[in-house]
Amino acid sequence: MSNKFKILCFLFLIAIISTAIINLNTGFLSLNINDFFSESINSQIAEIRVNRVLVMLLAGISIPTSGFLMQEYFQNPLAGPDILGITSVASLSVAFYIFFSSDILLPDFLQNSFLSLSAIIGSLLLMLVLLSMSNKFQDKSYLIIFGFLVSAFAGAIVSMLQLYAENQSLKNYILWSFGANNMVTRNQIIVLSILVLIGSFICFKTIKPLIGNSLGSSYAQSFGVNLQHLKLLIIVASSLLSASITAFLGPILFIGIIVPHFCRLIYNPAKLWQQWILNMFLGILMMLLFSIVAEKTQIPLNVISSIFGIPVILMMLLKHNKV
């Protein structure tokens, strides 16, 4: 482990701790430390802010890890859960659930679990389609075009559902799509933590095979890599991580693309273990910063991620075109 990597990790940890503290002190009311550790008038507000920091931490781990897996597997810096349509299909699955389960009375814990499950199933089905299409396209960049078409189709269906939805269902979907990180409860965080933990463990199992895969499929097979097994692990991990965040926070776009890009700029892109760690650190830092901006400006979280992400991706395209 190089000194540069250790220094980067240390700097990220300092920045994450600092932004987390700022996050806890960002809001309409000023809180003191007793509000976080004892019963007081503002204890509920303190709990909401702690939940906000925790869910940003989980999102910062999940979204960049999902994008990192996709980019390393497809060997394409523009591959990601949102570009390939995974987020859109997860959103469509959540829309179906919200619009057609409004008359079913369930406890909040179960309802949120089913919400997450619907997003995961939808994204998993799309990933199976994407990976089967990858065998038919000689140029894997065509999968990005396919992903855009899927996103457009999913968006059209969601618009049609919104047109005929009842007022309350429409309101619930709009609030969900804004990425309202203040609405995530402690029970939701428990469910989300379990999903992120499972997805991260599967990601851990893919790093070594991905190192062999990056050198070519022939070398990977001679190295003992089971490419079909690797493909399955990538499907499950990427879908689980991106869909679980989408279910609880709405579609947080572009973060899964730009964070791996920045990490490759600041450290050796061939060292995948270190890249994965840096992706998580930078992802957590970026999501905490976005959360602060969202609280200060009252702009939805997914709008902020798009405003930041679109120019970065445009610069990536221009840079790639020059090369």
UniProtKB/TrEMBL annotation:
Is the keyword S-adenosyl-L-methionine in the record?
no
UniProt keyword annotation of NAD present? no
Q: Which InterPro entries match?
A: ABC_BtuC-like, ABC_transptr_permease_BtuC
A GO molecular-function annotation: transmembrane transporter activity
One of the GO BP terms on file:
siderophore-iron import into cell
Keyword annotations for this protein, in alphabetical order, are: Cell membrane, Membrane, Transmembrane, Transmembrane helix, Transport
Compartments where found:
Cell membrane
Q: Which Gene3D superfamilies match?
A: ABC transporter involved in vitamin B12 uptake, BtuC
Q: Which residues cross the membrane?
A: 7-33, 53-71, 83-100, 112-131, 143-165, 185-207, 247-267, 276-293, 299-318
Q: Where is this protein chiefly located?
A: membrane
Any one of the GO CC terms: plasma membrane
Membrane topology of this protein: Multi-pass membrane protein
Q: Which family does it belong to?
A: Belongs to the binding-protein-dependent transport system permease family. FecCD subfamily.
Q: Which PANTHER family match?
A: FERRIC ENTEROBACTIN TRANSPORT SYSTEM PERMEASE PROTEIN, TRANSPORT SYSTEM PERMEASE PROTEIN
**By what name is this protein known?**
Iron complex transport system permease protein
